[in-house]
Every structure is written in C-alpha cells, then in structure tokens.
Amino acid sequence: MTEPRVKNIKTEVLSDNWYTLNKVTFDYRKPDGAWETQSREAYDRGNGATILLYNRQSNSVILTRQFRMPTFLNGNADGMLIETCAGLLDNDNPTDCIRRETEEETGYKVSDVRKVFEAYMSPGSVTEKLYFFVAEYSKEMKVNEGGGHAEEQENIEVLELPFPEALQLMNTGEIRDAKTIMLLQYAQIQGLLGN
Question: Minimal CA–CA distance to 86: which of 113, 50, 54, 117?
C-alpha cells in the first residue's frame, strides 16, 4: 500500500448561503516526497446530470435557453445561454434525476435514457461531477410545455433545432456551454445524427 498524498485535512465553511463554499487546508506530498501545507477553496453544489435529446428521423435535438447570471457577470451581454437539459441530483440517482429534469424543463417524458460518460466540470474549484446522458425523443413523448418550475424561478425556453444548426451555433460561439458542447460533439462523433 502506498503512502497517501493528502493528510491532515481541515475544513472551514466560508459560506453556506446558496450551496457550500469551504476553505480546505491540508498537507500534500509532492512528487519528491516532501510534504507541504496547502490551502484551497472548494464550492460544493452537489452532483448533477445532463441529457441530449435527439430525433434521428427529423435529425434534430432539444436544447434549452435560459438566463445564467454568472455568464452575464463574465461578459455574456444578455446572460442567455443555450444548453442541454440538466439538473442537480437532489438525492436521486442520476438516471431518475435526468428523467425528472427532462420532463420539467423540456416537457418530454423519456424512459429509455443511456448514460454515456461522467466528468468533473470545473475541478479547480467546484466539487460537482456531472453524469451525461442521451435519449431519443419523439413528438408522442411530449406531455407538457416544459419551462421548469416557477417556484424555482426557472424561465426556460425549449428549443428544437436541426442538428446541423446546433453544430453551427457551437462553431460560431452562440452555444458556449461546456456540457452542451460535449454532448453535441459526442452525438457527432458517434454518428447519432447527420451533419
């Protein structure tokens, strides 16, 4: 058994207003074997799931558009972001979470979802791991208008786009959400839809 690289972890809560921001102080063993004390901040918002809904027959995808304050603060002029449907697990398993979020946000009730990978989205400062899914949709699966929950202040616009248009929006920078780019590229690489 090898010696651990991290020990003596001490955590101080800096904020728990929305999610939890911790200051973590720890001893880290460097490659040369020497120990050094380090300190990092880590934002814990829980894990999440995201999904790309696609339709082979119409060669289209379902995406969402909504206001994202952090993007507005960092130069996104209107704060609107085109994204794949996503949500926090909220104590659900990833599969149940993404089925629930898909119906709430897009109005489509999907049952046959397929996990394709998982990734840490911003590992330098955020603990979140995101589970990525794909699922085929059809018009018959539409059970409501979607848009999210009003009590959660979600004002989500549902977009059905031809796949080539979605790829073009990614290439022009109009789609610049990491999870969305990853799933669109996955669909392109795997040949789920035509370019």
Answer: 50
List the structure tokens of 73. 């603060």
State pLDDT tens for residues 157-180: 999 999 999 999 999 999 999 999
Could you tell me if 174 and 101 lie in one domain? yes
Tokens 């959660």 correspond to 152
Give residue 26's identity as a one-letter amino acid code.
Answer: F
If asked whether residues 96 and 136 sit together in one domain, one would say yes
What are the CA-CA distances from residue 14 to residues 28, 69, 112, 122, 128 (Å)? 22, 21, 41, 19, 18
Contact (CB, 8 A) for 49 and 131: yes
Q: Which two tokens stand for residue 128?
A: 């979140």
3-state helix, strand, coil split of the chain in percent (to 5) is: 25, 40, 35
> Domain residues for 143?
48-190
pTM of this prediction? 0.91
Tell me if residue 127 falls in helix, strand or coil: coil
Helix (H, G, I), strand (E, B) or coil at 2: coil
